[in-house]
Design goal:
The protein is mainly α. It is about 70% helix and about 10% strand. A hairpin with a 5-residue loop joins strand 2 and strand 3. It is globular, with a radius of gyration of 17 Å.
Length: about 140
């Protein structure tokens, strides 16, 4: 058994970092119509195109119930369209209105991206990104 560090718990350290980073994005997006979570969902769909909700939940590392709750206001606003597929499956796609609201928020989002990367440095950011991917995979 690996002795666990006394200074910090993995979960606590990751949650603290996540809250601090999320706060920066939330503040930047405050003038847009999107929350950080909504922006991430729309952007993921914009990049990948229409996809089954089960695959979107997996890509976002969300359980389906949480994904459905997160998509509800986006579909109500007309930014995401949900379509039936074979059987009980459904898929999601970004609407033109969703693309417009995402594009409007992109500059604010990218300003935070740039600030964080500048503070960390590109090589440290790339290392952190790879490590976070490994952490996500290890926790699945």
């Amino acid at each position: 058994m690996i002795p666990f560090p006394t200074a910090s718990c993995v979960c606590t350290a990751l949650k603290k970092a996540s809250r601090a980073v999320s706060r920066c994005y939330d503040e930047a997006l405050a003038g847009t119509q999107l929350t950080t979570a909504q922006f991430a969902l729309i952007r993921n769909l914009a990049r990948n195109g229409e996809m089954p909700l089960s695959r979107l939940a997996e890509a976002m590392v969300m359980d389906r119930t949480s994904l459905y709750r997160a998509l509800e206001p986006l579909t109500r606003e007309g930014w995401i369209a949900i379509a039936p597929q074979a059987g009980r499956a459904k898929s999601a796609a970004v609407t033109p209105e969703g693309m417009a609201v995402m594009e409007n928020a992109t500059k604010a989002w990218e300003s935070v991206q740039q600030m964080v990367i500048e503070r960390l440095g590109m090589s440290r950011w790339e290392a952190l990104q790879a490590l976070l991917t490994e952490v996500t995979d290890a926790a699945r």
